[in-house]
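Structure (tokenized):
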């Protein structure tokens, strides 16, 4: 298929592009390079530099790509930043997304796979989180993603655009070629690996008084290659659907740090800090629905091989893409 990938120069987008190309699809990457990196664009893909604020540019690029489907990764994705700058999140994630849908209507593209998030659920009443749980975001980031999910329903009903929304839990790891390099790094695993590389003195543990066995937050870390496979399967969906994507297992912050020490063979200095606002204690996915309906099963079920792949990439790219 011809696939149009917004945000294809970013962390998750670049690796999905690589896997789409490996599977024989033709890809056009659409990215404004504010978060993404030119070096993260697979050279086998076409590249259209552009911004989701600009409908004619999206429409022209979409028409030129002859896309049969869109994968929409381009977004701002930092919970903390969204709490101080909601305008940025609603503008880029909601208005930008709406512009993309407008361009799809104009060019007649009828399928979209959307990067959504477990942040649309807020603090869940129970775990594992399945698709029947009420979505009650507790930050503008999660709200902006939920608003786009809700728009998708109407573009299906009114314009016949089929969607698959994939709510990622904690994406982690790397492919051999592409990895995680954010200009501002707030995520746990890359920050621990920076300590192992000697680029940071210590890693902060945000909150040690959560109601979990070791007092730190529990997350469901999912390998980026498993996420990419889910996107590929989403292209085969015949009707619109929303799926939660995780392994169904949980790892605490302290367990992630211990696993990083084991994988890297280097000690990690830790500083215990207060809780980070907006962090629920425990987020674990139930991915039964996508397993049942599309046959998706994550290959990486434990944290160590996920960290190993990230560590390999960071060792080979100690300064990221720069
Ligand atoms: N975390 C931490 N220190 C860091 C970064 C994150 O203790 O330097 C914690 C964070 O509070 C959360 C978990 O690690 O409980 C995962 O955070 P991350 O930012 O990687 O992903 P999120 O769950 O926010 O999407």
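Design, position by position:
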């Amino acid at each position: 298929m011809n696939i149009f990938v917004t945000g294809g120069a970013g962390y998750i987008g670049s690796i999905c592009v690589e896997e789409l190309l490996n599977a024989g699809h033709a890809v056009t990457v659409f990215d404004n390079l504010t978060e993404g990196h030119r070096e993260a664009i697979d050279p086998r893909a076409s590249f259209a530099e552009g911004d989701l604020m600009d409908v004619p540019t999206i429409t022209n690029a979409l028409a030129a790509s002859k896309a049969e489907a869109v994968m929409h990764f381009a977004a701002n994705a930092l919970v903390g930043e969204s709490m101080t700058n909601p305008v940025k999140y609603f503008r880029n994630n909601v208005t930008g997304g709406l512009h993309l849908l407008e361009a799809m209507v104009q060019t007649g593209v009828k399928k979209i796979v959307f990067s959504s998030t477990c942040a649309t659920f807020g603090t869940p009443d129970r775990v594992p989180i399945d698709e029947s749980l009420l979505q009650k975001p507790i930050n503008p980031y999660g709200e902006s993603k939920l608003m786009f999910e809700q728009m998708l329903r109407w573009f299906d009903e009114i314009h016949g655009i089929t969607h698959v929304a994939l709510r990622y839990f904690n994406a982690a790891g790397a492919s051999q070629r592409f990895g995680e390099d954010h200009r501002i790094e707030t995520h746990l695993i890359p920050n621990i690996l920076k300590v192992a590389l000697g680029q940071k003195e210590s890693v902060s543990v945000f909150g040690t008084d959560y109601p979990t066995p070791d007092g730190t937050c529990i997350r469901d870390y999912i390998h980026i290659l498993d996420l990419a496979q889910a996107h590929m399967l989403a292209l085969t969906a015949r009707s619109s659907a929303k799926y939660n994507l995780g392994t169904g297992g949980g790892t605490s912050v302290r367990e992630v740090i211990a696993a990083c020490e084991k994988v890297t063979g280097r000690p990690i200095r830790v500083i215990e800090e207060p809780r980070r606002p907006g962090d629920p204690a425990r987020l674990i996915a139930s991915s039964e629905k996508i397993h049942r309906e599309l046959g998706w099963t994550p290959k990486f079920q434990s944290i160590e091989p996920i960290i190993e792949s990230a560590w390999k990439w960071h060792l080979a790219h100690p300064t990221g893409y720069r």
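Reviewer-requested clarification: The chain has a mean pLDDT of 97. The chain has two domains: 2-171+221-244, 174-219+249-316.
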